[in-house]
C-alpha cells in the first residue's frame, strides 16, 4: 500500500495554502516507510501536526533548490535535534544535495549542523541511475523549469507514484511516468504556457498519454485556483478513465 497525504498544495507565494509538500507512506504497521516530498517554509508545521513522533520520518526528497521547496529544512532538522532524534535521516536529491543542505542550515542556524543529535545520509538520485532504498526504487528525470528540477518516480511492490516537482514535463518525464497509478503534477495555470511551469491541460494530456488513472494538480497559481477547480470539475466528467483531483491540505489518497 502507498498512502499519499497532501500536507500543502500551494505555490511559492500563496497566502491561503501551504507550499506544496507531500507525505508518502509505503507499507503498513512498523514496516512503514515515510518520505517527505519537498520542505518549503510552511511544510514543517504541517508535518509536525501529522507526524508528532520525531523518529517516524525516514527520508526527505528535494526536487530542486528553490526556497518554496527547501527553506523549511533548517527548522525541520533543528526541531528533530531538539527532540533528540537518533535515527538517521536520509536526504535525497540531485547532485550537490549535501552541500546545499549544509549551506542552508548554516545560513539559518550557524554552527548547528555539527551538533545535530542524529546523522544525515545523503543520496544523489540522478537520471542516470536508479536508487534502491527502504525496499523502494527511486528514479528521476529532468523537468523543464527555471532551475534544474528532477521529477521523481517511487515504486513499491508493484505500485508507483510520479511527482513532478516544478516545471513542464519533458519526453524523459513522460517515459518515467508511464504505468504509474498516480501523477502529482505542478499545474500553475489552466492552459496558458509560461516558461518553467506546467499547466492543468498539459498535466491532463500527460496522464492520458502515459495511461495513468489518477492525477493530482498542485502548485496552482493563487489567483487561478478557484477557476481551475470550477473548470476541472466540469472537465473531469468528460475524462471517463482519468480521475482528476485538486487536493486540499490534509487530503489523502491510497494506492
What attributes does this structure have?
single chain, seven-stranded mixed beta sheet, 7 helices, 255 residues, Metallo-beta-lactamase, Chain A, globular, alpha/beta
Q: Could you walk me through the main structural features you see in this protein, from its secondary elements to its overall organization?
A:
There is one protein chain. This protein is α/β, with parallel strands linked by helices and 255 residues long. The chain is built from seven helices and 14 strands. The strands form two sheets. A seven-stranded mixed sheet has the order 6-5-4-3-2-1-14. Strands 7-8-9-10-11-12-13 form a seven-stranded mixed sheet. Helix 5 links the parallel strand 10 and strand 11.
Mean pLDDT: 95
CATH fold group: Metallo-beta-lactamase, Chain A
Number of helices: 7
Tell me the structural class: alpha/beta
How is the main sheet built?
7 strands, mixed
Major beta sheet, strand line-up: 6-5-4-3-2-1-14
Radius of gyration: 17 Å
Gap between N and C termini? 6 Å
Query: Which sequence of SSEs, written as H and E, runs from N to C?
Result: EEEHEHHEHEEEEEHEHEHEE
- Counted beta strands: 14
What is the CATH architecture annotation?
A: 4-Layer Sandwich
- Note the overall shape: globular
Tell me the strand percentage band.
Answer: 25-35%
Assembly state here? single chain
